[in-house]
């Protein structure tokens, strides 16, 4: 008794465990399906957020991103969480909240890094470069850029490598790392060629031209910029066209050809007004202001500098704001009776530069402030600021500010008869001037050498072009000869094609006549079979013996099943094969109408692959289906009951065709033996199976199940 109870308890435990496992499996399946739907929805709406961001609808973008981020955190969707922090940071960046943007980008970077996603990690690091740049933290810009570049080189994405190197050049320039910047600029052209992207190739020449400008190779700079402009105009990229136009303008500005500079800057302005990047437009306005000032048109120059200041204040870019304030102060200094205004703007610039530690900017502001005080006859204060300017400029190696401030002090100390101080500043001025002139001379020599090398290269190109021209002319002559023979050959081929086409028309006409005859034949066979079916139906009306009546009805069903085959053939465009799934639908609909009894709910279901059969296989297989489905309707179910007849028609894993017919009825009688079955229907099924070289399998466990497997059917 105890053993029995123990077995019962163990059985109950096993049952409960299996139920729990099935429940857990169902829950896991439901959770997986729900997770998949959630992630698809998040990804879809994130794409909408990106589109809104492109349109600068920042508030709407942030609402969608925050909602998706909360959802991603709730379902632990790593990709969605990373995206949420990344693009929320981008929105904050565009709203000039650089600290918040950097914090969010750092979180996104950690998530992608932990997930092992190199591409996304690199992209977020690239975003962080902009955050650090506008916070004036250039060493962090370099660190983020080098990490991002390495990741993109590992993935082989040179488009991103190019963007990273371009940003690294900017950071090195800001830190006065001349050698590093120069090396990267030369490398940039090679990277651009690897991308095959015209926009980036044009941009690489733009950067090369900027390098030449810094080195005072102004003619080479203009050549590089014109090359960038030609490539940009070919590609139709308005951003690159604007960059190239502005660069040409800058080269002319440095060459002191101010009218040419203004012409190119005004062309650039027209393009930039229609673009999102307002910082580039602010640079254009600043350069226009400098050009007009140089021409003595201070009113126009001032109007452009004021526009620049307004735009940069909206961006909250402190270093750029300080630069604009200096330009405005300098412009007021050049104008008569505007010293007070000039000093006001210079002091504002000083406040910003002292806060952000921009010592070159402070030195220049001191120099400008000193000149302003001298103009308003406050020479002692002017001297004080000029001395401070020289001290800072020499410390941070700004020769231009040093030269200008020392030159002003030489004049002031000479007027005051402080000749020792005037002499000391003259020495400083001469040293700086000599250094700059020496550097300019070296640059001029280098420029001449580079121009000579360039002309030599041009000569080589011209020789190559001449050789190509000779080859081209010889190719033209050869092509004319080939063309003559080609025309002759094409004429012969055309005549042959016409002959073939006419032959094809004749054969096609004969084929259509054959098709019409075949269609007519199948139509007549079908009609004859239906006549036989009608005769059997008439004959059955006069038969009183139930056994004979049943036999006639079964024969009528067999005739109808064959008639359906021929009906399909004459209605089809293909006479060589039957759409067997369609045939099964028609056959079962006919049988259901004949054998479906009132009071019974016998349904059928067909699951069939799109397989076509030749007529020699279709007719026997159709008769087999007819017999087995008829048996299911007639004998498979008890009266006043419901049931289901299933028909499967498909290819099994061995590429063999399987016809399965089963029902969930009462099944076979006890002692049933297919081989010794006395019924004509099952004997016919066996004969037809052998005829099409198939195998018949029967399962008698639950209802009746038949499987017919065609062994050698393609």
How much of the sequence lies in strands comes to 5-15%
The shape, in one word, is: elongated
Give the spatial strand order of the biggest sheet. 2-4-5-7-6
Number of helices: 24
Biggest beta sheet summary? 5 strands, mixed
Q: Pick out the low-confidence regions.
A: 1-10, 12-17, 439-459
Keywords:
single chain; 714 residues; mainly alpha; 5-stranded mixed beta sheet; two-stranded antiparallel sheet; 24 helices; 7 strands; elongated; disordered N terminus
Summarize the structure.
The protein is mainly alpha-helical. Helix content is 79%, strand content 6%. The strands form two sheets. The protein has a five-stranded mixed β-sheet, covered by helices on one side. Strands 1-3 form a two-stranded antiparallel ribbon.
Describe the structure.
A hairpin with a 5-residue loop joins strand 4 (642-651) and strand 5. The protein has 714 residues and is mostly helical. It is 79% helix and 6% strand. The chain has 24 helices and seven strands.
What's the arrangement of secondary structure elements?
Elements (H helix, E strand, L loop, with lengths): L1 H53 L3 H18 L2 H17 L3 H18 L2 H17 L3 H18 L2 H17 L3 H18 L2 H17 L3 H18 L2 H17 L3 H15 L5 H17 L3 H18 L2 H17 L4 H18 L2 H17 L3 H17 L3 H17 L3 H122 L5 H26 L6 E2 H16 L5 E8 L3 E2 L1 H21 L6 E10 L5 E7 L16 H12 L2 E6 L4 E7 L4
Parallel strand pairs: 2-4
Antiparallel strand pairs: 1-3, 4-5, 5-7, 6-7
Helix pairs in contact: 1-2, 1-3, 2-3, 3-4, 4-5, 5-6, 5-7, 6-7, 7-8, 8-9, 9-10, 9-11, 10-11, 11-12, 11-13, 12-13, 13-14, 13-15, 14-15, 15-16, 15-17, 16-17, 17-18, 17-19, 18-19, 19-20, 20-21, 21-22, 21-23, 22-23, 23-24
